[in-house]
Amino acid sequence: MDGDIRLRQRLAAGDDAALQHTYDHCSTLVYRLALRVTRSREAAEEITQDVFVHLWEHPYAFDPGRGTLRTWLALLAHRRAVDWVRKEERRRRLLDAVGNPEPAAPIIDVIIADETGARVRHAVAALPQRLREAIELAYYHGRTYRQAAAELGLPEGTVKSRIRTGLRSIADTLAEEGSTS
Amino acid sequence: MTEPPLDLRARMISTALTRRPPARPAPGFARPYAAIVAMLDVLLTDLREAEWTVVAANDDWDVRDLVVHLAATDGLLAEAIEGRGSSACDVLDRTREALSRCPPPQDARLAWRRRADALCDGLCEADADRRVEMGGRRLRLSDHFAGRAFETWIHADDIARGTGRTLMQPPAEHVYPIADLGVRSLPKALALTGRDHADRTLRLILDGPGGGQWTIPLGRAATGDDPPAQVRMDVVEFCFLAGGRRDPTSVEAETSGDPAVTRDVLAAASAFSGP
């Protein structure tokens, strides 16, 4: 406990050696825990980094009166890992719903948060044609930006921007429906 | 068993230090200052917009005013290092001048941090013994830096208490030089406040991390009393007493020996605490 109080003081005083020391003593625990929950190395690495950076930026968030630093880091890692899994599940359900496991572009968060594929299809159908055809090629037919651009006879940048505009419009439609239903 | 990849450590450190700069590297005598600056900075980054206007010290200075005041005083030290001395009045004049420009809180914070970091840059160990005049006091640079660390700590505590937080204590190695400066200033503090015990000796025991024991003659005429007047108290309480944040008549301290000496020492301890 005394060690934790002193470590926290050194972190607050901007001593980066204290951060390295904490990482050396707790990173294996944090990483394994995140890996066990997410079963993804990439996610476990990201969570491990986030947890230690959070401690460095907010040393006051850890209260040594309520438990050890190890436990606090482990709880934080667990919470973030569970959040990651939930987000990942929503993402997978949506991808299943639109029938394409690998999108050409990252889907923005509001769409990921929507759980019914039917509403997504509906929103896609309501798009102006120039946006809809770009979205359909990328998401329903698995084209890369470049392939989609070639098929539509448009520059790649134009296709990208149409996809972005389309996605934003879908997100707005879903958000509106969400707030009225 | 599975270990995190080796390069993750370096990636984490680099992200962390980009998001929040570490204490500025500095020679030993300026390290407590650099550390306490980092300590106040992390406190300020956690403040909500409305908390910047909480009155935190000196009757009507809010958080932003205190940060501006620290920056203005740090600026005087930078000038002193370049050979331009300053008087006690300059401290308040500079603060008022800077406040009249009404900097937004985040600008005030960034300007203060930049100036503090710049103050640490370009110092070398040999500067410790250079004597410069700042705020009307001609002292070794190491003492000026302990003084700046001290004032930054006191105002960080003002800000923490004003916004309903509890400030962490600085690590012990940074508390010690501050307490040491406070102890060594006692003879002059007594003289300044007209309490003359120039023939007496004081023994001071400061408990807790960063504390220690001092036996100091209270003036040139001290002959080495046996046993000397003694004050024993917590080191942080002593620092806050010296910073003018404790009432000398009610602060927790064990005293023995001549009560006139111990009472006057406690009363004079804050003689050098400015605004």
Helix content of chain A: over 70%
Shape of chain B: globular
CATH architect. name of the largest domain in chain B: Up-down Bundle
Q: Might you state the CATH topology name of the largest domain in chain A?
A: Rna Polymerase Sigma Factor, Chain: A
Structural class of chain B: alpha+beta
Biggest chain contact: A-B, 30 and 37 residues
Beta fraction of the residues of chain A?
under 5%
Strand order within the widest sheet of chain B?
Answer: 6-5-7-8
Name the CATH superfamily classification of the largest domain in chain A: RNA polymerase sigma factor, region 2, helix turn helix motif
Poorly predicted parts of chain A:
101-110
Q: Give Rg of chain B in angstroms.
A: 20 Å
Shape of chain A: elongated
- Report the span from N to C terminus of chain A: 51 Å
Number of helices of chain B: 10
By oligomeric state, this entry counts as: heterodimer
Pfam families (chain B): MDMPI_N
Protein name (chain B): Maleylpyruvate isomerase family mycothiol-dependent enzyme
Keywords (chain B): Isomerase, Pyruvate
GO molecular function (chain B): isomerase activity; metal ion binding
Can you describe what's shown?
The complex is a heterodimer of chains A (181) and B (275). By secondary structure, chain A is mainly α. Chain A has two domains: 2-89, Rna Polymerase Sigma Factor, Chain: A, CATH 1.10.1740.10; 99-180, Arc Repressor Mutant, subunit A, CATH 1.10.10. Chain A has helices at residues 2-12, 16-38, 41-57, 69-98, 109-113, 117-125, 129-140, 145-152, 156-180. In chain A, helix 3 crosses helix 4 (69-98), helix 6 crosses helix 9 (156-180) and helix 8 packs across helix 9. Chain A is elongated and about 65 Å long. Chain A starts with a helix and ends with a helix. In chain B, a hairpin with a 4-residue loop joins strand 5 (201-207) and strand 6 (212-217). Chain B has two domains: 19-168, dinb family like domain (Four Helix Bundle (Hemerythrin (Met), subunit A)); 178-268, SCP2 sterol-binding domain (Nonspecific Lipid-transfer Protein, Chain A). Helix content of chain B is 49%, strand content 13%. In chain B, the strands form three sheets. In chain B, strands 6-5-7-8 form a four-stranded mixed beta sheet. Chain B has a two-stranded antiparallel sheet with strand order 1-2. Chain B has ten helices and eight strands. Chain B has helices at residues 7-19, 31-45, 63-81, 88-99, 105-120, 141-162, 172-184, 186-192, 235-242, 259-268; strands spanning 55-57, 61-62, 131-134, 137-140, 201-207, 212-217, 229-234, 254-256. The chains are: A mainly alpha (181), B alpha+beta (275). Chain A binds chain B through residues 6, 8-10, 12-16, 19-20, 23-24, 27-28, 30-32, 35, 44-45, 48-49, 52-53, 56-60, and chain B through 1-5, 8-9, 11-13, 15-17, 19-23, 34-39, 41-43, 45-46, 165, 168-172, 174, 209.
